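hey can u check if this looks right to u? its 494 residues, i copy pasted from the old doc so theres a chance i mangled smth
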Amino acid sequence: MLPRLASRSRPFLATQKRYKWGSNLPPNILKFQYAVRGELAIKASHYEKLLSEGAKLPFDRVTFCNIGNPHQLGQKPITFYRQVISLVENPELMKQTGVFPKDVIERAQHYLKSCNNATGAYSDSRGLLEARKAVAQFIRDRDGIQDPNYTSVDHIYLSNGASPAIQDCLKLIINGEKDGIMIPIPQYPLYSGSVPLLGGTSVGYYLDEDKQWGLNIDELSRAIVDARSHGLRPRALVVINPGNPTGSCLSTENIAEILKFAHREGLIVLADEVYQRNCYEAGKPFSSFKKVHHSIPDIADLPLLSFHSISKGLTGECGKRGGYVEMTGVDAAVHEQYYKLASMSLCPNVVGQLILALQLNPPKAGDPSYALFRQEEEAIFNSLKNRAHIVWKTLNGLEGIECQKPDGALYAFPKITLPRKAIEAATKLGKAPDVMYCLELLDETGLCVVPGSGFGQVKGTFHFRTTILPLEAHLEQVLHKFAEWHKKFLAKYQ
């Protein structure tokens, strides 16, 4: 006999007392901020929705320059990548004769075999072996070191973009609020957001704006001494190369200094290298932390965590979510615990893993797809290089704006000198002055950028970060619109 149901005459407890979840949220959630998708981006999305509904605004288009999202601003996908993925996702297309090049079909067949003919199935929590092999070989080729012991698939973990891998590594480092993570100022808000979210404390070190956002060892020493004087235990050092939001590129010599400093101070190094293909100056090529680490035998035991992604570079496949972390100088216990963390998410998405493998193992000279692939990549690179120059030159030509030349990455981070009345107006509104500047820019032009306060900046200075990603024809319109608005803003508050 089934048990009798409880009488429905007595109301449930939830109907007797309102559940006030919002007033009891965890303090770590309330404390952390993520500027690139914060107030400005939310308002920009609202404006975009209003325009789609036919509303009349001072502008007819919202331009999202707040985040490095290349395809959103018109960058075309690489044909080879999308063709291979199309066949992997729908193998029936291979039966169409004369549609796909031979190397596309062969690569799709190979990848299907590597994932047991099912991209909808879970992979190994570390990622597909075939994709991890591609990462390992890419690292050897990039650094010019073919020794099989230089890197291992067992030290490589794939992820849904670089960000989750970075956060999982921080989880293994932060053991309480006394644990300090050294992060550059300015920096990508992933770090200033994740560290307090995970219960640690950010230890900022300032990049030198007057020396093209250089990283000075004396400043690292100042920051670590100051942190320890306040009872913190600095555990790790974050370096972003090329820089975000600064666009600076570190020299091999500077990287060696940084690694030696970290070794001397007992720090774990997190090398965020997702923009390694975005180095635009011939005299400032990308140097990997891995290669420099390998060249200094005395620091072989220094833990180095290196990150890369399909979201940036020349690929720009942000929505596909693919990335990796390679661990160097890390003991077995850390690998065991990281694998456990990765296993909680079961696996990275398989399509993202395959695009990562494609990005790191593209067509070779002589392959049917090589000519088109090279043409597409060169066009993207040359255009990005040109756009970086145009943005830098235009911004530097405006009154009250000073912009260091972006040698790499996808952004410019200009300093703005705001009139005293603008600062006073912002104070009355309870806003940071650069936030008010960016909000007025959005309200009047539809251009969405991010205030420098979201990345960190020297006290008393004001900046904003903008991408260089609008396509060249649109970029000219964006910069003209910005220049006209900026002149009016200065006049308004003079």
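Residues 370-396 form the longest helix (27 residues).
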